[in-house]
Amino acid sequence: MKTIKDDTDVLVVLILSGAMSLGMVPFLIIRYLSREWLIFALDAGAFFATLTLFLYVYVTRKTAVARWLVAILCVVVMFLTVHIKGIENLMWIYPGLAALFFLLIPNVALAIGSVFLLIVTIMVWPQVTPAVLAQFLVTTISLLLFCFAFSYRARKQQQELSSLATVDALTGAENRRALEEALLSVTGRLSRYPEQRASVLMIDLDEFKTINDTFGHGVGDAVLKSFSETIQSRIRASDGLYRFGGEEFVVIAEHTSLKEAHHLAETLRLAIEQSSVHDGVNLTISLGVAEYSPGESSYQWLGRADAALYRAKQTGRNVSCTA
Ligand SMILES: Nc1nc2c(ncn2[C@@H]2O[C@H](COP(=O)(O)OP(=O)(O)OP(=O)(O)O)[C@@H](O)[C@H]2O)c(=O)[nH]1
């Protein structure tokens, strides 16, 4: 499933690579007319590289590698601009440094920007007066720090928003939206690599209505929270626990066959049976387990686990059944 961040990443790379290649055109013409062949060749190389990146991202919408390549191009173009065209072109460094923070994570952008600044400072040191050098350093270092603070805050906010959108506030398990995304991603991968396996466990708390009715909703909520903590402490970090709705949960166990998933289901069932969540509450769960069958949709996969769960309930609860 596409996120707002994915869209923004694509837009940033398209704008930067597009602006860089378009911005090269007048310089290419000037270098050609003035027959400065070395600089013309360098500009032409940068033009084709940025244009290729632009077209690649436009067609594939993939940015993981392209962001790094555009960042590297930015650094190379900034360096060559100052090195070949002289220190009167120092101001090109400012947009280049800012662009790094749109392309890379804040710490990496700060590290690369700082190393680059150090190299440029050593390079221009003998050619400028101490006053100009001091101005250059104060303004570029301020720019780096402001960009770092801004992009660090934006990244934190984006992580918090993403957690709010995908985590169930009561239990800390991931929510239905995250489950749908995860199922799409797993079934997509399994259809590309049919030799890989994955299973889902559909879990339902037994007689939960009775717990609510007897002890009140506050205790019911505490039971849900404690259930989620127990399950999360028993599954692998790569397995996800998702709240499907109410007192129904799903575990996606990747690289797990039906037999292994059934073993996991029994481990979870016993862990919950033995846990003490509240005085007088003897919590048990029923589980339905299904391994992914090549070709089926995530909806069909979950449907088979749900049918197995239904059988577990019919069998008398506190049981796990396989599809
Ligand atoms: N406290 C609390 N209760 C919830 C929450 N979400 C759903 N429930 C309750 O969960 C109960 C589910 O009841 P049922 O669907 O009858 O299932 P059950 O009592 O567990 O019975 P079986 O599934 O057949 O074992 C309902 O009473 C819901 O109100 C929640 O977030 N907090």
From TrEMBL:
<keyword id="KW-0812">Transmembrane</keyword>
<dbReference type="InterPro" id="IPR050469">
    <property type="entry name" value="Diguanylate_Cyclase"/>
</dbReference>
<feature type="transmembrane region" description="Helical">
    <location>
        <begin position="37"/>
        <end position="59"/>
    </location>
</feature>
<keyword id="KW-1133">Transmembrane helix</keyword>
<dbReference type="InterPro" id="IPR029787">
    <property type="entry name" value="Nucleotide_cyclase"/>
</dbReference>
<feature type="transmembrane region" description="Helical">
    <location>
        <begin position="131"/>
        <end position="152"/>
    </location>
</feature>
<dbReference type="InterPro" id="IPR043128">
    <property type="entry name" value="Rev_trsase/Diguanyl_cyclase"/>
</dbReference>
<protein>
    <recommendedName>
        <fullName>diguanylate cyclase</fullName>
        <ecNumber>2.7.7.65</ecNumber>
    </recommendedName>
</protein>
<dbReference type="Pfam" id="PF00990">
    <property type="entry name" value="GGDEF"/>
</dbReference>
<feature type="transmembrane region" description="Helical">
    <location>
        <begin position="96"/>
        <end position="125"/>
    </location>
</feature>
<feature type="transmembrane region" description="Helical">
    <location>
        <begin position="12"/>
        <end position="30"/>
    </location>
</feature>
<feature type="domain" description="GGDEF">
    <location>
        <begin position="196"/>
        <end position="323"/>
    </location>
</feature>
<keyword id="KW-0472">Membrane</keyword>
<feature type="transmembrane region" description="Helical">
    <location>
        <begin position="65"/>
        <end position="84"/>
    </location>
</feature>
<dbReference type="InterPro" id="IPR000160">
    <property type="entry name" value="GGDEF_dom"/>
</dbReference>
